Amino acid sequence: MTKPSATDSPEHSGAFRAFIAQKGLRATRQRMAVFEAAKSISGHYTAEDLLRKARALDRTVSRATIYRALPLLVGSGTVREVDVGRDHKYYLAEAGGNAFQAQLVCEGCDTIVEVDAPFMEWYGKAVAAKHGMRPISQKLQVTALCERCQKRRAPRP
Amino acid sequence: MTKPSATDSPEHSGAFRAFIAQKGLRATRQRMAVFEAAKSISGHYTAEDLLRKARALDRTVSRATIYRALPLLVGSGTVREVDVGRDHKYYLAEAGGNAFQAQLVCEGCDTIVEVDAPFMEWYGKAVAAKHGMRPISQKLQVTALCERCQKRRAPRP
DNA sequence: GTAAGTGCAAAACCTTTGCACGTCG
DNA sequence: CGACGTGCAAAGGTTTTGCACTTAC
């Protein structure tokens, strides 16, 4: 049943290798381990999660290397950074389609749901333009309670 | 020319006094100084800014008191918290009209512009409902470059 | 060979918290 | 008086950084 997963396809690192080469950087063992780890995690994860995964591939990966590699992963489009104002940032493997996405965050369990919201992109650009500003990025975040958390916690008397 | 400002009207603290009394808390000298300071600052400010202003009114106000008072100011509707993912949070005296506002943030100088975006509120609620979640709050943030920063920094070769 | 990269540990940074003392009601 | 509030300073927790050693190219 398990059809060949894309996770272990070595050629997937091509774009990333090209990105770092073009910047005059080096494809070190640790860097590539972080890259592979980042691609292998599904859903949102923290820097600490990534460290664990990367260490499973290469024991020598340190926390500093994770934090130094993350901007490269983001810059190369491998990973997206998701900051929902929690104590730590989240990261997410970038899907193929680059549709603009909003984040639905459950206040009870911190679960994050990515939601396509193409209209937001248009709206954000319009707002920036109206103020004479050149738009760079936009972010819509909806805090809510998921079904499970609605039942678990009474909304307070 | 200077028409009587609302800043020094003592009765403006009424709502805040009622809020803390209703919670069984006390209207201490320091707490009220922080309140007055918060109302006197126009535009966005940090906790540190607030500390300076409050100390100008009452030298005994400490940083801890600022951080302990801020949730009360927010809870009473005196102040709005604005978190745009920078190193520190910003605060803003709550205006009368409670229209939903988006934040336009200049990436170059960190200036924040509040923009009315009532449609966003509706949109956020709809997104949450579509996923069976009960909406609590939403936040739209547009990162951009203001005119001055567009000229100052070349977009990098 | 040499400049970039790495691990380690300490630093940085805003914010929170423990404690003993003050003070509002 | 007694609980709530305060100042001080130290702790917290993620991310960054300085330094000497490695390593990719």
Characterization of the model:
The first copy, chain A, has helices at 14-22, 29-40, 47-57, 63-75, 118-130, 147-152; strands at 79-82, 90-93, 101-106, 112-116, 134-145. Chain A is built from six helices and five strands. In chain A, 28% of the residues are buried. Chain A has a three-stranded mixed beta sheet. Chain A is an alpha+beta fold and 157 residues long. Chain A folds into two domains: 10-92, Winged helix-like DNA-binding domain superfamily/Winged helix DNA-binding domain (Arc Repressor Mutant, subunit A); 97-153, Ferric-uptake regulator, C-terminal dimerisarion domain (Dna Ligase, domain 1, 2-Layer Sandwich), CATH 3.30.1490.190. The termini of chain A are far apart. The A-B interface holds A 83, 85, 102, 104, 106-107, 113, 115, 117, 119-120, 123-124, 127-128, 131-147, 150 and B 83, 85, 102, 104, 106-107, 113, 115, 117, 119-120, 123-124, 127-128, 131-147, 150. Chain A binds a DNA duplex (25 and 25 nucleotides) through helix 2 and helix 4.
